[in-house]
Every structure is written in C-alpha cells, then in structure tokens.
UniProtKB/TrEMBL annotation:
Pfam families: adh_short_C2 (PF13561). Gene3D superfamilies: NAD(P)-binding Rossmann-like Domain. Keywords: Oxidoreductase. The lineage of its organism: Bacteria, Pseudomonadati, Pseudomonadota, Alphaproteobacteria, Rhodobacterales. Its EC number is 1.1.1.47. This is Glucose 1-dehydrogenase. The keyword Ribonucleoprotein does not apply. PROSITE patterns: ADH_SHORT (PS00061). It comes from Palleronia pontilimi. It comes from the Bacteria.
Length: 250
C-alpha cells in the first residue's frame, strides 16, 4: 500500500548522502510522493532528487534566509500546485561546552535548526490552509529532552528544545485548519552529522546507553516521518515521537 500517493512533500537538508532527510525522501518517493529536495548546494539537491527517480525536484535553499524559503516554496507551488507535507530536517550541530559557545556559534546553530523551521513552515502555511490539510514534521532530538549527552552542545539542545515548543504551539494554532504539526526526536543515528567526529571511546559510551544496543539507521527515522506525514497519523498533532532504541524511556 502506498501511503503518499498523489501527495507532494518538501524536505529540507535532504541532499546529504547518508542523512535522515535523504532516507526520508527515498521512502516518501517509494510511497508515491513527489519530493522537493531542498539543500544549500543546488547541484547536490538536484542530484539527490534525480536519484529518487523521475518527477522530483531539487532546489537550493538556505533555510536561515526567509526570502529563499519563500522562493523555494513558490517554485514548488508553481510546479505542483500543492504542498501536502513539509519535513523540517535541515540541521547542524557543534560539540561545544557552555563557556565555549561564541555568539557566532549560537547564531549558526539556532538559526539553521530553529529559525529555519519557523521560516519554512511560515512559507508553507498559506497553501496548506487553503487546502484545509497538511502535515509538518520537525526534526528535534533526544538532546532536547535530556540536555545533550551525545554530541551537540547546550546551544544545540536549546535549539532542538525550541523546536518542540514551536511544534506544539504551531500544532495548536493550525489544528482548526486541518494542518498537523509533529516532531521526531531521534537518538544516536549513524549519519554524517557525527561521522568521524566521535572517538571510539565516546561511541562505545553512547552505545552502552542504548537498550537496543545499536545506533539508529536513517531508515528508522524515515519510517517515523512516513507515519507522521501520512493519514496513518490523522489524529496526531503536537506530538513528539522518540526514535532512539530506548535510550530515553520516560
Ligand atoms: P546531515 O549532516 O547528514 O544532514 C543535514 C543536512 O542539512 C545537510 O545536507 C546540510 O547540507 C543541510 N543543511 C545544513 N544547513 C542548512 C541550511 N542552512 N539550509 C538548508 N540545508 C542545510 O545530518 P543528519 O544526521 O541527517 O541530520 C538531519 C536532522 O536530524 C538534523 O536536524 C539533526 O539535527 C537531526 N538529528 C540527527 C541525529 C543523528 O544522530 N544523526 C539525532 C538527532 C537529531
């Protein structure tokens, strides 16, 4: 059964080869969606879209720039006339301690994760409201819930916790319009965001804290995104779904 037949989806930060956005794009495409891959580099976004098969599109979009967000959404609407799903996946992290966070670190991490989620959602809301339906999926993190402890610094935890608050407030405001907004909190997932940046010791320590005993796979997160994007989750809004192998059972 194809869960997104005839639907269109925008996924930010979806060009990264081993990333959560890319895996989500692949699963959405396999379920019949037309996918717009947005990322910083146009060539990478176009290549990722082409790798999904025909009928998808790749666009350059820095989610920290409101004009670029509006322009990318306008391009998708021009081409496809509708946006059913937005996955706010673009994110960066930095392994800093409190006193190491310089103003530019704060700005970079807060802007991509939190400001970008707001701008992209703002850009999509009018079309979703007109359609009377839509699903927004925001990528938070277990770091928001437990105050880091894997890789990202306090500013990353704050940005991802901000995404949870934003998700819930937007869910409340947009529910009467038929637009659902949910968040995913991935735990430790093997992607390039941490690749080569954790020592063997650090990695072993992280794995020791995961009851399922393994790192997550990008496809583990994609499956959750598909659930939240599709009608299977029709009565879910304002939720935060943990995808962490049991590393935060609460
Ligand atoms: P990744 O580094 O593989 O992919 C992130 C993508 O975002 C890249 O393609 C990058 O180019 C893009 N990007 C960065 N800044 C951007 C900007 N300003 N505008 C548009 N795109 C931008 O990372 P990933 O592991 O796939 O992470 C995806 C999301 O999941 C992030 O929000 C991350 O914080 C979150 N997350 C990841 C993990 C994990 O363990 N991998 C855990 C929890 C949450």
């Amino acid at each position: 059964m194809k869960l997104l037949d005839g639907r269109t989806a925008i996924i930010t930060g979806a060009a990264s080869q081993r990333g959560l956005g890319r895996a989500t794009a692949e699963l959405f495409a396999a379920h019949g969606a037309r996918v717009a891959v947005l990322d910083l580099d146009l060539g990478a976004a176009e290549a990722a879209a082409a790798a999904l098969g025909g009928g998808h599109m790749g666009l350059a979009c820095d989610v920290t720039d409101k004009d670029q967000c509006d322009a990318a959404v306008a391009r998708v609407l021009d081409a496809w006339g509708r946006i059913d799903v937005l996955v706010n996946n673009a994110g960066i992290t930095q392994p800093l301690r409190i006193l190491e966070i310089a103003p530019e670190n704060y700005d970079a991490v807060l802007d991509v994760n939190l400001r970008g989620t707001l701008y992209m959602t703002q850009a999509c809301i009018p079309a979703m409201r007109d359609a009377g339906s839509g699903s927004v999926v925001n990528m938070s993190s277990v770091s928001a819930q437990r105050g880091g402890g894997i890789f990202g610094g306090p500013h990353y935890s704050a940005a991802k916790a901000g995404i949870l608050g934003l998700t819930k407030a937007m869910a409340r405001e947009l529910a009467p319009d038929g637009v659902r907004v949910n968040a995913i909190c991935p735990g430790f997932i093997d992607t390039d965001i941490t690749a080569g940046k954790l020592s063997d010791d650090q990695r072993a320590q992280v794995l020791a804290g995961i009851p399922m005993g393994r790192a997550g796979r990008a496809s583990d997160v994609a499956g959750c995104a598909l659930f939240l994007a599709s009608d299977l989750s029709a009565y879910c809004t304002g939720t935060e779904v943990d995808v962490n192998g049991g590393s935060l059972i609460h």
